[in-house]
Specification:
There is one protein chain. This protein is an alpha/beta fold. The chain has 2 domains: 158 residues, Rossmann fold (3-Layer(aba) Sandwich), CATH 3.40.50; 113 residues, N-(1-d-carboxylethyl)-l-norvaline Dehydrogenase, domain 2, CATH 1.10.1040. Helix content is 53%, strand content 12%. The protein contains 12 helices and 8 strands. It has an 8-stranded mixed beta sheet, sandwiched between helices. The longest helix has 29 residues. The N and C termini lie far apart (63 Å).
């Protein structure tokens, strides 16, 4: 089986490696990509290919930043030969309205499944494979990917159901991470970091442990989550008050991304909080 994972990044390379281990050929395009991305593709056993070759694959898994998802579908459609009927699974963190636009951008002959990924990119051969949820017209066909080492779960509902689930899950996990990081920064700015850390140690141990395990991994990814928060805000509805929470989270992640590329003053404040061992005693 020939798979295409266009512009494979960390997640795409992890999935590609799993598919290669199952005996498949996996194509990607590394032209213009960073050296780290190129090396990940090589290590995963993926083969560099043109968009024309990608468009001729049996199964196309689109795993790109949300801002590129629609253009990716359009580019693949343009490169696809007449009458081609690959299985195209869109696995991007986009809102249901966008995924319907993605489906409409592809030729009618394409078998389309809306998809979403829950979990981290597998970085080793023994790492857990993230779960793929699929819905839409070709969701049943996508279940065959279980035979190729992927964890696939079908969802009732048409195109948009899997993307809606991703929006909800991402709002909870990444939205909560933004709220937590913002408060840790505030505590350090106001000089109450030690007191908050001690209180969380006493009454919110699970939340503190979650922050210790998750927040440091956010810094380098923050730039990628800006568009996802914007998609979540659109998913909730621009006229609903709660949409503003995730619109603000998008702004916060952009601020964190800028800090990560800059002097890291905010990130250093979070690290000080999480590394604290001078717990106050009552």
């Amino acid at each position: 089986m020939i798979y295409a994972i266009p512009l494979a990044g960390e997640m795409g390379a992890g999935i590609g490696a799993a598919l290669v281990r199952s005996g498949n050929t996996v194509l990607t395009c590394v032209e213009g990509r960073s050296q780290a991305t190129r090396l990940r593709a090589v290590d995963a056993g993926m083969q560099d290919a043109s968009f024309t070759d990608l468009a001729r694959a049996d199964i196309i898994l689109s795993i790109v930043p949300p801002s590129l998802a629609l253009d990716m579908a359009k580019n693949i459609a343009q490169a696809m030969p007449d009458g081609a009927a690959p299985l195209y699974v869109d696995l991007n963190a986009v809102n249901p309205q966008t995924v319907r636009q993605i489906e409409a951008a592809l030729p009618d002959s394409v078998r389309f499944a809306d998809g979403s990924i829950i979990g981290a990119a597998p970085k080793t051969s023994d790492a857990k494979i993230p779960r793929f949820y699929v819905s839409g017209p070709a969701a049943g066909e996508a279940l065959a990917l279980r035979d190729h080492g992927l964890d696939i779960e079908p969802l009732d509902g048409g195109t948009g159901a899997a993307s809606a689930l991703k929006m909800c899950y991402g709002a909870l996990t990444k939205g909560n991470a933004a709220l937590t990081a913002a408060i840790l920064m505030a505590a350090e700015r106001e000089g109450v970091g030690a007191a908050l850390h001690a209180e969380m140690e006493d009454s919110q141990r699970a939340r503190l442990t979650a922050a210790e395990n998750f927040i440091p991994s956010v810094y380098a990814k923050a730039y990628r989550w800006v568009a996802e928060m914007e998609h979540i805000a659109a998913f909730l509805g621009e006229n609903r008050a709660e949409a503003g929470i995730w619109a603000s989270a998008a702004t916060f992640y952009q601020h964190m991304a800028d800090d990560y590329e800059g002097d890291r003053a905010e990130i250093d404040a979070i690290d000080r909080f999480l590394a604290r061992d001078d717990k106050l005693r009552r």
